[in-house]
TrEMBL record, chain B:
Reaction catalysis annotation: fluoride(in) = fluoride(out)
Membrane topology: Multi-pass membrane protein
Organism the protein comes from: Paraoerskovia sediminicola
Name this protein carries in UniProt: Fluoride-specific ion channel FluC
Residues at which Na(+) binds: G91, T94
Entry keywords, A to Z: Cell membrane, Ion channel, Ion transport, Membrane, Metal-binding, Sodium, Transmembrane, Transmembrane helix, Transport
Transmembrane annotation, as ranges: 17-36, 48-69, 81-103, 115-136
Keyword field contains Metal-binding: yes
Function noted in UniProt: Fluoride-specific ion channel. Important for reducing fluoride concentration in the cell, thus reducing its toxicity.
Primary location class: membrane
Lineage of producing organism: Bacteria, Bacillati, Actinomycetota, Actinomycetes, Micrococcales
Activity: how regulated: Na(+) is not transported, but it plays an essential structural role and its presence is essential for fluoride channel function.
InterPro entries: FluC
Family note: Belongs to the fluoride channel Fluc/FEX (TC 1.A.43) family.
Gene that encodes it: fluC
Localization (cell): Cell membrane
Amino acid sequence: MTGVLGFVLVMVCGGLGAAARFVVDGAVRARRRTAFPWATVSINVAGSFLIGVVMGAVLFHDAAETWHLLVATGFCGGFTTFSTAMVETVRLVRSDRAGLAALNALGTTVAAVAACAAGLGLTAVL
Amino acid sequence: MTGDAVPHPRPAHLDPALIGLVLAGGAVGTAGRYGLSLAIPVVGGWHVATLVANVVGAFALGFLLEALLRPGAESRRTRRLRLGLGTGLLGGFTTFSSLAFEIERLFADGDPGTALAYAAATLVLGVAACVAGIVLGARVSAMRTDTGPGSADPSGGAAR
């Protein structure tokens, strides 16, 4: 899947991912208001697990490259966000919560890589 | 819906028009990120396209949110800009999932040094870029507050 159609489909999937993030983020925030940005952390870790599953299917089960483009590049890319994670990290520093800020930046990265590895591992044994 | 007084304004994340705005912004941001990935090759295990998108996006979101910041309730226009450009476009432009996958693959390929360096560079540059964006955005916001017309729409006070 290449060309203009492929590009447009990746865009649509990215838009759907961003919209899903907006809805999930709002729903999580409505339930619990905490200093630590659990909503973004959960979204980024969940999206990293999903990219692991999809890329595992592509790498280990010869799933079509289309899945890589639509789900990994498109949906997961639009669903997860690095920019908000950085803004929330800096906000924690500004509100004198440097420890939580470090935990947010490093913890999200470690948890996201672990979640991605878990997704890949899951598809590897299936 | 007529847009007339709504007795129970629904939360932003359940408003179809605002969800559509985030979707449109996210599609544009994704196009930018995908385009960068096609244009910039991986160099020595470093996913430069992802790094550039994430660092530029962190700068731009820091700038945008700080520049839009005003005392008092958020206006309708400000909220649309924040959701369309921030949550949508810049959220879609940057990615945590690709970053995680790229780091995981570097570890899996037996190159933990590059994995850790890539992760550390992304986080350090991301935080630094975000701070730079916030500092610049604060200046813009201060300039607009000093000289601005003070015409912020007071009717749009509906919460975020």
